[in-house]
Amino acid sequence: MIGWMGKRKPLFLFGMLTLLLAGCGKENLTAFEPKGYGAESSMNLIILSIIIMAFVLAIVLLVYVITLVRFRKKKGQENFIPKQVEGNKTLETVWTVIPIILVLILAVPTVVATFDLADKSEAQDGINVEVTGNQYWWHFNYQGDEVQTSQDLYIPTGERVYLNMKSSDVIHSFWVPSISGKMDVNPENVNTMYLEAHEEGVYWGKCAELCGPSHSLMDFKVIAVSPEEYDQWISDMQSVDPEADPEDAVAQDGKALFEEKSCVACHAIGSSPNATGPNLTNFGDRTKIAGYLEPTEENLVKWITDPESVKPGNKMTGNYPDVSEEEAEQIAAYLLQLSPSDITTESAGN
Ligand code: HEC
Ligand SMILES: [Cu+2]
Questions:
Q1: Of all helices (H) and strands (E), which one includes residue 189?
Q2: CB burial class (10 A; 0-12, 13-18, 19+) of residue 330?
Q3: Domain annotation for the chain: domains and CATH numbers
Q4: How many Cα atoms are found within 13 Å in the side-chain-facing hemisphere of 298?
Q5: How far is the CA of 128 from the centre of ligand 1 (A)?
Q6: pLDDT at residue 26 above 70?
Q7: Which residues line ligand 1 (CB under 6 A)?
Q8: What is the pTM assigned to this prediction?
Q9: What top-level class of enzyme does the UniProt entry assign (predicted)?
Q10: Per residue in 44-80, pLDDT tens?
Q11: Which residues contact 109 (CB under 8 A, 6 or more apart)?
Q12: 127-134 and 137-142 beta bridge pairing
């Protein structure tokens, strides 16, 4: 039976693949357009390995074609058997030595890059951020600066930012493809890496290790701003008064509810190291809510009243008293005005 796809099956499959892959490559979420030191270093290795692979493919194809043409069965030579070269020392040596050379060409730069990307010799004088992976969000503690934040990591361009990473629960993997390679984030030990962004911008990050039902929603951002803007951001964050009352009356009620509904038990505002939930000091500047929802009031109300519908298996669901729609709106008004700094994604040119 010839189905509706009929002979066009390959074309159909190709079309589906094109559609599927067209969804990939969100802006600043690709290792193929490196915007940072680590990503560039990986990209160079990728290009090198592709060149070597293409070289091997070309040689193999060439030998294949020559063999096909030269050793075809010819008329009048049906019983002809070509010269047997089994055990030929020269051939054996050539096809042993060439691959070894190719592997060496690949291995030496790879090992050099691996050590280079693990280099911590300047870490002590640089910016150090303690990164904690949690189901399903990221916490960032700027060590020595008493600044805590979550989900959006601000870094200065042109400088190495050293990450000291651990997990509070299961294994996660920290990956900002445009800036650097992946690093596993384990509960048992601290893994380290550094980020160095060449250009200002907002870079997407993903958790790259299956960690539970909402693993694919464990997105975050790295926001690279100029060093001056970064210093400004740090000092703005440091001067936040967590007790400050909002000007708006609705937001004031929201603040009271935020305490009443025990949100404060998990969410710190200011530099308190409490990290059972995301730090909300600059929540009003977040690029997303819970890592992936657009930061609108509507989405925030939805999150506060029913987080489970947004992120299945998250650790907030069921751990606070019921919040009505109206109360959620008041809380949302409070949270959305938490914007202590003028340095936001706009400063990064987005
Ligand atoms: C038991 C601890 C806990 C309590 C209590 C709690 N939350 Fe959460 N909250 C979390 C966790 C954990 C997350 C991260 C969820 C995720 O992304 O997987 C979160 C995420 C959020 C976010 C998104 C933060 C971001 O950076 O995008 C907001 C906003 C929020 N909670 C508001 C509230 C409000 C308002 C209350 C009180 C009504 C509250 N939370 C009570 C633990 C808690
Ligand atoms: Cu994860």
A1: none
A2: buried
A3: 37-74+83-117 (no CATH), 249-348 (2.60.40.420)
A4: 1
A5: 26
A6: no
A7: 136-137, 150-151, 214, 258, 261-263, 265-267, 276-278, 286, 289-291, 303-304, 311, 314-316, 319-320, 323, 331, 335
A8: 0.88
A9: translocase
A10: 999 999 999 999 999 999 999 999 998 888 888 888 8
A11: 44, 45, 48
A12: antiparallel
* Pocket mutation for ligand 1, best pick of 316, 317, 325 (most atoms within 8 Å of C-beta): 316
Looking from the CA of residue 257, the nearest atom of ligand 1 is: 38
Span 207-234, pLDDT tens digits: 999 999 999 999 999 999 999 999 999 9
How many whole angstroms separate alpha carbon 101 and alpha carbon 62? 20
Q: Which of 255, 263, 280 to mutate to test the pocket of ligand 1 (most atoms within 8 A of CB)?
A: 263
How far does residue 271's CA lie from ligand 2's centre (Å)? 24
